# Entry
Amino acid sequence: MRARAWRSGGALTAYAITLFWLTLTLFPFAWLCLLSLKTPLQAFAVPPLWIFRPTGFNYVDLLQHTDFLRFFGNSIVVAVGTVGLSLLMGAPAAYAFARARFRFGRAAFLWILIIRMAPGMCYVIPFFVIYHRLGLLDTRIGLIVLYTVFNLALVIWSMHTFFSEIPVTLEEAARVDGASILQVFTRIVLPLSGPGLAATAILCFLFSWNEFLFALIITRNVSRTAPLAIVNFMAYEGAEWGRIAAGSILVIIPVVVFSFLVRRYLVRGLIVGAVKG
Amino acid sequence: MPAHAGVGAAEWHPAARRSRVADERTYAWLLLPALLTLGVLSLLPILVTVWLSLTSWNLMVPTSGAFVGLENYGRMLADRYFGNAVMITLILILGPVALQMLLGLGLALHLHRDLPLLRASRAVFITPMVIPPVIAGLIWKVLLIPNLGGVNYFLGLVGVSGPNWLETPIWALIAVGLVAVWEDTPFVMLLLLAALESLPTEPFEAATVDGASAWQRLRYVTIPLIMPAILVALLFRIIASLNIFPVIYVMTKGGPGRSTEVLSYYAFTHGFQFLDIGYASALAMGLFALIVALSGLFMLLRVRFTGAE
# Structure
């Protein structure tokens, strides 16, 4: 359906609707951003203040008087660890699926679907019990292992698509010249699939970065991640909205940057379960 | 060296066949770590949950943990708060998903044009669905504070006196539902946009030549052609509706009363506030069954309406 098809005023309507939805999308973020730059007194002025002298107070307060930076660091460590472990195990598996004669398609997709359908509660209770026994509660490695289980399916599926797009002739030539499968994989296939690896890595990163339920139950103080830390500012008498807003902005920034980079793969990624737990 | 396996006559060569067996073995080794992890760590927890649901294990009662058979399930079926949680879960799946599908389809149809500004705005549209759901919940919690938050201020500007959103049962339910719509409508929109863009132009040209109106083209050409994508979007929205937990956790904690207490939140309170692991596991399995039933129903309808597979 091209623009021609809806001739009269079609473009105008489209722009109006876009503008409306853009406002609806962006307004909450704008509000959050303003909130993070207001003093507690300005934050809840009635009517709301639109023009005011912005203050960095909330950010300074957040970074100096709370442990937020440490929790932010936990988020980074857990996300990077998850990406590393998932790719390390998932990429070779995806390559084997793409090149060997095993049947991948339907069965694996069904498997992924089942994992997706099982509610997080079905995982978090047993993991809590097992981690309790193993002393892995409130450790970053515990969280990394848990997230890797959920990301492996995504990595295999996503990398399988990318590997399948690489022409086999190149690899066959290398094999004829005496290269082993491992050499072909590491020297030829991986360098060629850089963009695919990057996109997959980012999707895994987003999953781990955004995850809430598992982090809520597995972590306490030592390995607490940033979203949990932000929620905790609500727990005390009267929510500390300044800290919450500043922390939220800091957590959102990497998400926005990364998701912009992988926007073409986002829908595909969301289907297999990235981004949200 | 023998030629690479799978190249015509080389298949017959013993050395080639041997190397093919070796190849398959290498591939199997590449697969092993991932499959083992996936197989064990994704299946085992569910089995453990099933087993836990058959015990009376409570972390606060040291002597608990005996095998009690289906007792937890019996308790669940008799528990009226479980019934309530199932109702709320269904409402918060069906309501938001229906709105997401309608809005997503509408937006996709409108945005499917070669207008440069529209293309650029897509990058902005994705933001709500990629931020952590807890943060989406927190933002809207602030916005919905009566008198102080933005929503009631703007409602006031147009002469509507906004409700006390999160303190009123029905409005709280509507509020968390709308947050879900805000977060995930872009998912449906993007999926359907991708489907629309991959369509051939011929059917539309043919329909136009035949004098079909815009509505007829939509109803008889566009919708049937993107039906597979619509169904995929629908299925994944239903499954992913489980993600409402973080939003409930920060916005309402299941309240006021039990008006927004979805099953996942109910299981959470039993498991991690009362530490009643046995009963919480049964509730988690109940939720699993609910999702499987919904997806199964969906598959049936899909076969019924599209005759697919």
